[in-house]
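User: I'm putting together notes for a lab meeting next week and I want to include a structural view of one of the chains we've been expressing. I don't have a solved structure, so I'd like a prediction I can at least talk through. The sequence is below, exactly as it appears in our construct file.
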Amino acid sequence: MADALRQFTYTAADWRATLARNNRRTMIVIGIFILIYLALGLLVDLYMSSRLYPYALPSQLFYALITLKITPLATPAMLIIAVISLLVTFSFHDKLMLLGTEYHEITPTNAQTAAEQQLYNVVEEMKIAASLHYMPRVFLIEADYMNAFASGYSEKSAMVAITRGLAEKLNRAELQAVMAHEISHIRHMDIKLTLIASVLANLTVMILDILFYQAIFSGRSRDNDRNSSNAFLLIIMVLRYVLPIINMLLLLYLSRTREYMADAGCVELTRDNHPLATALLKIEQDHTEGQAAYSAAYQQTSHENVRREAYIFDPIQAGIERTGSISDLFSTHPDIKDRLAALGFKAP
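Assistant: Thanks for the context. Below is the predicted structure for the 348-residue chain, given as structure tokens.
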């Protein structure tokens, strides 16, 4: 596979700049999600206030809410709902990530083969290199396709999982690079950030649906109040169809940004960009060659949509598609050539 890299032009990659640049982008995206959520809470408060004060103009109600002359109720309530939802998601996310797969945990005392012991050793090496305070739990998934992911909302709850196909088809340096990539996700708190964004995105859609049906089925009796009601309904209808698209694009952008950061983190930990580059090429080639069999395996395994964003390789890039939502039409990961370019290997 090293021969495959010869067709790429090699240049020195600045992993420090990549980390700093994408971290700034992440903070911007998370900030946008928080602002969208707060703005939606304010919209709900505006709608509720318009029912209490039917003769007031929306601008008057808006000013009264932001100056606290009218106490906002929906916005604080939505913040409480978001906090509870995040706590529940954090508590059960690790278990959800392994649902539907056949797996077993690898520990220093139960490793059944030399390969399993090597996998645990590699993870431990990268844990030490990353200066993590806790050793991630290590899981081996019984699957032929090559993939891996990390999960956990903190270092203490962290875990890494790797398929048997990947463990058997990579050499030690490549395996170490993949684990360094996953450890970097833990180190950068990627799981926590993406979960926060996903929960806020899902809550905005749910709240908009509730607000939409409330606006439709709560008719008003005053004619001079009808124009204001129609204006709110129009705004809610537009947001109901536009906001999910905005959320999806932001989540995709966030996911790709964090993948670049994890790749750069891998180079930082291993001090070598070649093993990850060859590993990515091997994974892509393996998915392309086993497309039919892997497509069936992915689609017959439940909860793959939960793992898709966390995987080191998005199977959609190899033409293995899953149906179910519009987001399945787009990859959650950067193109392999773009990732290799970020690592310093530019296609001719």
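A couple of points you could mention at the meeting. Residues 2-346 form one domain. The mean pLDDT is 86.

User: Perfect, that's what I needed.
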